[in-house]
Design brief:
The complex is a heterotrimer of chains A (326), B (302) and C (351). With 302 residues, chain B is mainly alpha-helical. Chain B is built from eleven helices and no strands. In chain B, helix 4 runs parallel beside helix 7 and helix 4 packs parallel to helix 11. The chains are: A alpha/beta (326), B mainly alpha (302), C alpha/beta (351).
Chain lengths: 326, 302, 351
């Protein structure tokens, strides 16, 4: 947890999620600490299988019943893990809302877009249908959907990918959430559409003063949108700090490896530096640091114990034995 | 091992070091593994096995001759003079007739399904893979038969062809070919859209080779599941046909026929008269539950 | 016949079809493929609408575009997995499918494809070594020969054949599956390899591994590659020449350096400007282009890009521009009526 005077909008403390299955237990998240201040964008960066989506869903308790969640999650001071089902329903879409990766599957195909947004509005504010429809129109205009009036009565399959994503963002913003959770919302979009959605999200986040957690595997996207970055590997946060510092001068070998292997203007006659090997099996995590088998800077102690977070400044953390203490 | 000397690059740059985590297990091995650990399905499977065994070993275990009639021994209750399950309206031993009747019922249950699976399977795979007009021709023909409720269709065909075991099996086969064809066609169409079929085409494989190596293995699963669930329906339908007099002819023991002839005697020895119905019920339900278990075991997420 | 490449490593192919010389390996001329829309008579999805290009022996051609531009359809046309409605394909100097040229079957011995979805490209019921051996087996090897080829090629792509051969696809990671797909394509010893978004679904670090592998294999086996992707950075790393596609047509074409440093077509400029910067201090403030990539049914009249183009003029709405040379002596072509465009002038809507 970072030291900060104002009470954070979101405080996650030692979050662990295990999926208990018949054949094996998957340790998806292993002791994650996060804070997000109001109006701040935190980017959780990691590759597939690192647990970032599970972490995000845990905050709204959107995980299946067989998931065992331990730890503490506090949103605006309220304990999410202790909430009753009714309080959770008020939380979701109200105080905290979520945008998903695949707009085609996240929107109901048998209802028009306008109707779905209006339904969310009605659910949380209890207003009548006409007022909800007006609000839906306002929201579509807020997310810059051209011909918003016509699009209110369109079905999701009639809209293009970018428009569907905008509609989903409109739905997420319908009740003025204070925290927006975005699970790889631009991964499935084309490059020219991705940049439009990123700029839109940045603008909306600034104007509405929301906190945002943006999950992605793309360092470029993280650079474009994040104030702070937290890098996840095998269910743990291995590095965090301000975006410019983490992406400009990574401390953890994994972050450094990710940066080096991302293709951006490397010379084409030489190999790209790679992180050898594959991510670990979450059912059988190695003892000690989970990154050690692939790490070029591993030492004897890395196999014995999991590195504890080290703070080079109140804001900057890396969990690695190989870096010097600041 | 291969001649790695031809590679000039240091192999370490791109060799995969991490072995895959799980145990090597093919699809069918996974299915058997799951079945082995499913006690409910195993239990009902055991009952099915017992029924089949009893039918096969009928001459060895039946206490009496199923055809032996006796005027004085008619409609006797349980336990009367060594007749464990009583006697029917012609004095024949119920237990023996039930055991022998199992043969007919199982035959009429399994054989039509197997043959229909083969015929319908081939038609469905061909139609699904070739697509276009051939597919339309096959599937719309099937739809004509599919439009009839199966009982009605069975009665109509059996009535037209006359009774008897052979005609009965033929009837049921015809009734089951359309749904089997549809299942096979759906599965084939889904497989056909996947990239590995394109890749096989790109390797230069002909249609038959692709069907043999790539399609059949993947289609077999859904077809097997559906066929196993059809067996219980087939047993019911066969009994129904016999009950209506369109199936087996007397004096051959058959559960449906026995129900029909014992119907009038239900006020005399109700328990004895209900026995064939109980036999049909138990056999059908056990097959059904085994088929459910098979479906669950085969639904391996790959 | 065995060839030695310039760095001394052996290229082992039976190159009886190689006529030698500087002739291009693959020539596509005015390829066209439309898919009729069911229910709407006369309307068609004009997936590929007049595409022409050449691929020289030993080079890597990159094809870049967003969804709806027709690149996947084009990939399948190049391998004759789809029959073109019009246009022709010339491989190794001979027309494909035409009388007197080479048969489609022969094309399939010499050109292979790696698909995007690494999981759907492998039969889930076959172990990996059988999937790889299938190609050689179909093309005439005996089962034992095919298995031996499979072992050899699996180790060439960095997978130990004893460790990975008996595995089933679902036990492998995405990167490993994609290596298997590459092995499968290379098992029949093709000269041309078409890769349809081979790394798009992989994590960035795995992407790097697979790209390194492709570079090495290309050099060792003397391959010619056609690399299709939506990711400009990857295309830049891999290709020598690049074609940019939009709505079924090539809108710009040229050497990779020219395309990336001096893009001439407004769409190419917008694509390049849409790449996220890696520096949080220099973020993109205005989207270079608005709207979504359009649907290839009913493309606009005139220049297909004109509804979204910031520099549109009257002529663009009526006349369809052809590919014209934009840099003398550099084989750099662009299909645009107006020249010397600089991004920044013209109407740009904000987010």
């Amino acid at each position: 947890m970072t030291a900060n005077d104002a009470a954070p909008l979101l405080a996650v403390d030692d979050l662990s999620v295990r999926f208990v299955g018949r054949e094996a237990t998957v340790h998806a998240v292993n002791g994650v600490d996060l804070t997000v201040q109001a109006g701040e964008v935190l980017c959780i960066l990691g590759e597939s299988g690192c647990g970032k989506s599970v972490t995000l869903r845990a905050m709204l308790r959107l995980l299946p019943r067989r998931a065992a969640i331990t730890g503490r999650i506090h949103v605006a001071g309220r304990d999410v893990l202790a909430m009753s089902p009714r309080e959770l329903r008020d939380l979701r879409g109200g105080l905290v809302s979520m945008v998903f990766q695949e707009p085609m599957t996240a929107l109901d195909p048998v209802y028009t877009v306008g109707r779905q947004i209006a339904e969310t509005v009605c659910r949380h504010t209890g207003c009548n249908r006409a007022a909800a429809r007006r609000r839906a129109l306002e929201l579509l205009e807020l997310v810059r959907v051209p011909s918003a009036g016509r699009r209110l009565d369109a079905y999701p399959h009639e809209l293009s990918g970018g428009l569907r994503q905008r509609a989903m963002i409109a739905m997420a913003l319908s009740c003025n959430p204070r925290l927006l959770l975005a699970d790889e919302p631009t991964t499935a979009l084309d490059a020219t559409v991705q940049v439009q959605i990123l700029i839109l999200l940045r603008r909306l986040q600034r104007e509405l003063g929301m906190g945002m957690i943006f999950v992605t595997h793309d360092l470029g996207v993280a650079a474009e949108i994040a104030d702070r970055v937290a890098v996840m590997y095998a269910g743990r946060i291995v590095e965090s700090g301000p975006a410019a510092e983490v992406l400009g001068g990574p401390a953890h070998p994994y972050t450094a490896g990710l940066l080096a292997s991302t293709i951006h203007d490397q010379a084409d006659n030489r190999d790209i530096e790679v992180i050898s090997g594959s991510p670990p099996d979450l059912r059988r995590l190695p003892q000690g640091c989970s990154f050690a088998p692939r790490c070029s800077r591993r030492r004897a102690e890395c196999r014995d114990a999991t590195p504890t977070p080290r703070f080079s400044s109140p804001d900057r953390m890396a969990a690695c034995f190989a870096i010097a203490d600041g | 091992m291969t001649d790695i000397l031809t590679l000039r690059e240091p192999v370490a740059t791109f060799t995969e070091e991490t072995p895959p985590a799980s145990i090597v297990r093919g699809y069918w091995q996974s299915v058997f593994y799951r079945l082995r650990h499913d006690p409910i399905t195993l239990g009902f499977g055991a009952i099915v096995a017992l029924i089949v065994l009893a039918a096969v070993a009928a001459p060895l275990i039946a206490p009496f001759d199923p055809y032996a009639q006796s005027i004085i021994a008619r409609l006797k209750p349980f336990g009367w003079r060594d007749h464990l399950l009583g006697t029917d309206e012609l004095g024949r031993d119920m237990l023996s007739r039930l055991i022998y009747g199992g043969r007919v019922s199982l035959l009429m249950g399994v054989v039509p399904v197997v043959i229909a699976a083969m015929i319908g399977g081939i038609l469905g795979v061909v139609g699904g893979f070739v697509g276009g007009r051939v597919n339309t021709a096959i599937m719309r023909t099937m739809d004509v038969f599919y439009a009839f409720p199966s009982v009605l269709l069975a009665v109509a065909i059996a009535g037209a062809m006359g009774g008897g075991i052979g005609n009965g099996m033929l009837t049921l086969t015809l009734v089951f070919v359309p749904p089997m064809c549809r299942v096979a066609e759906t599965a084939t169409t889904q497989i056909r859209a996947l990239d590995f079929i394109e890749a096989a085409r790109a390797s230069g494989a002909g249609t038959l080779t692709i069907i043999r190596y790539h399609v059949l293995g993947n289609v077999l699963g859904p077809v097997l599941i559906y066929a196993s669930s059809l067996v219980s329906v087939s047993i019911l339908l066969a009994s129904g046909l016999s009950f209506l007099g369109l199936g087996v002819r007397p004096p051959i023991p058959d559960w449906g026929l026995m129900l029909s002839t014992l119907r009038q005697s239900i006020y005399v020895v109700p328990l004895v008269c209900a026995l064939p119905g109980v036999a049909i019920f138990i056999t059908s339900i056990c097959f059904n539950l085994v088929s459910d278990g098979l479906r669950a075991a085969m639904d391996v997420r790959m | 016949m065995d060839y030695r490449s310039s760095d001394g490593s052996t290229i082992d192919r039976h190159d009886q079809y190689d006529h030698g010389g500087p002739a291009p390996l693959l020539v596509a001329r005015n390829l066209r493929k439309h898919f009729p829309v069911k229910g709407a008579r006369g309307k068609a999805v004009r997936a590929v609408d007049g595409v022409s290009f050449t691929v020289a022996k030993g080079e890597t051609l990159g094809i870049v575009g967003e969804s709806g531009c027709g690149k996947s359809t084009l990939a399948r046309l190049l391998l004759h997995l789809l029959v073109p409605d019009a246009g022709e394909l010339i491989f190794g100097g001979e027309a494909v499918g035409a009388a007197g040229g080479i048969a489609v079957k022969t094309l399939r011995r010499q050109a292979q494809m790696v698909f995007q979805d690494s999981a759907a490209s492998l039969n889930p019921r076959l172990p990996v070594r059988d999937s790889v051996a299938f190609g050689p087996f179909v093309q005439g090897s005996t089962k034992d020969e095919a298995r031996a080829i499979a072992r050899d090629i699996l180790s060439r792509v960095g997978l130990d054949p004893d460790m990975f051969g008996p595995r089933y696809p679902h036990e492998l990671s995405g990167g490993q599956k994609q290596r298997v797909n590459i092995a499968r394509a290379l098992a029949v010893k093709p000269r041309l390899l078409i890769l349809d978004e081979p790394v798009s679904a992989l994590d960035k670090s795995v992407e790097a591994q697979v790209l390194n592998l492709l570079r090495v294999l290309k050099r060792q086996l003397g391959l010619t590659l056609v690399f299709i992707s939506h990711d400009l950075n990857v295309v830049r790393y891999v290709s020598r020449r690049v074609a940019v596609m939009y709505l079924g047509r090539i809108v710009e074409f040229g050497p990779v350096k020219a395309i990336f440093e001096r893009p001439q077509h407004p769409y190419t400029q917008a694509l390049l400007a849409s790449r996220p910067s890696m520096d949080p201090a220099r973020r993109i403030e205005m989207p270079p282009i608005t709207g979504d990539p359009p649907n290839p049914i009913d493309p606009p009249a005139g220049c297909r890009f004109h509804p979204r183009c910031p520099f549109v003029e009257a002529i663009c709405e009526t006349a369809d521009p052809a590919l014209r040379v934009v840099e003398d002596g550099k084989s750099h072509f662009a299909a645009c009526h107006l020249r010397d465009r600089v991004l920044g002038r013209g109407r740009l809507a904000d987010a």
